[in-house]
Specification:
Length: 300
Amino acid sequence: MEPQIETGYPPKAPWRVGDIEIVPCSEHIGAEVRGVDLNALTDEQFAVLHDAWLKHLVLLFRDQRLSESGQLAFSRRFGDLDLAPKDQNGRPELPDFPEMAVISNVVENGRAIGALGSSEAVWHIDMSYNPIPPKGSALYALEVPPSGGDTGFLSCYAAYDGLPEALKRRAEGVTIKHDATLNSTGQQRTHLEPAHDVRTSAGAVHPAVHIHPETGRRALYLGRRTNGYVTGLSVADSEALLDELWAATTRDDIAWHHQWRVGDLVLWDNRCAMHRRDAFDPGARRVMHRTQIKGTKPCN
Ligand code: OGA
Ligand code: MN
């Protein structure tokens, strides 16, 4: 029998608070928020956005015009920010804005101006290889290729809700080590030893099912597939359980794929949404700015 998914949440129809309209993008995840200028957000509007974010997991704001400091100020409404990862030479990508990461394939004067290149990025939770991953990420599009580079999101609540009962119980009893040695495009992080043995390689351990600290809902917390490890199991048993959990999770019916336009800002809840990115033409330019809001340790 197909697993049944609880369908009462998030809201399925567009809803409105004052001038703000919230239009769901898919059944389980994502909503476009209309009628707000992120440069001039009132406290009342912020409260609506925060509520919509918890309900819809990912929010899309179109036609924004954000400077670096505008995006930083908007992101700070949600909490303190993490510092951006350093570039390959150990330097911040934007020295004037150390909390701003550049996600780009553009190479200028022999130096990549940002991270992740133009290849596919596989399903992942941001920085779940750290003990305290960010609670959310805001990605803002400055330049986009004519096609490709779409970003997909999936609901980890719906993934959990849809697991067959026996698999749910097994997932609730285990922790997973999230691999730190590769990035989401499969590149080796040069300062770490390659993961010759997933039982001992670098990463952080989190419960496979955690409770979202603000919504109280249970979410499957898988991170990335490659080099994941269910702690305490033999590698063969860990691989088998991870394969089962991933097969039950990466389903189109609980995902939404966003096609970018310049001026889009997408804010995802990194505690209950996974994301991936399609490859795009390496000869085209894609330039995005990313901020990340500090999180708390995933717990159950
Ligand atoms: C990220 C990420 C996907 C994209 O910035 O964390 O996964 O579409 N980006 O660039
Ligand atoms: Mn990411």
